Amino acid sequence: MPEIQYNPERTRLLGLAEQQLLSECRCDTMRGTGPGGQKRNKTESAVRVTHVATGLFAVDDVERSQHINRHHALQKLRLEFAFHLRCEPSAWKQPVPSPSSDNFPLWAAVALDALFATDFKLAEAVVILGTTTSQLVKHLQKLPALWQFVNAERVKRELPPLKNL
After folding, report:
1. Which domains are seen in the chain, by residue range?
2. What confidence tens digit (pLDDT) does each residue in 80-95 have?
3. Are 117 and 123 in contact (CB under 8 A)?
4. Contact 111, 142 (CB under 8 A)
5. Which residue among 12, 37, 51, 120 is least packed, with the fewest CB closer than 10 Å?
6. Who contacts 149 (Cβ-Cβ below 8 Å, separation ≥6)?
């Protein structure tokens, strides 16, 4: 797993349109792995998108379409930015977006900034974010990858994992 990096450009990266983000990335195609028969084994529909400046990458091979897999890989890359690039913690002053929204990775990044700054102590992080503990937990649960990441970081710090509400 990549190390956590301080990167003030993260907000810009998370706000880029898909084509702009793709222009800053290297895109590799490959054959998908696993079951799927002849079609999966003969076409290069799997996509790995690597952001050149940070070295962060994401892979997707779920669909038979390379274009759809590229789109999904870019969405996963945005979450990688949220997981591994830190900025100064700040409050989130807008409604929390849904996990399918383009703004959700930015919200996740801001929430993680506050959690990292407080060593994953929720009571302190919610003060920075301007929310309540139950609201933060509810929003973290919306995306399984985010929920697992937060709980893994809490366990590293010998804190109990968060429980589902």
Report:
1. 5-85 (3.30.160.20), 88-156 (no CATH)
2. 999 999 999 999 888 9
3. no
4. no
5. 37
6. 83, 112
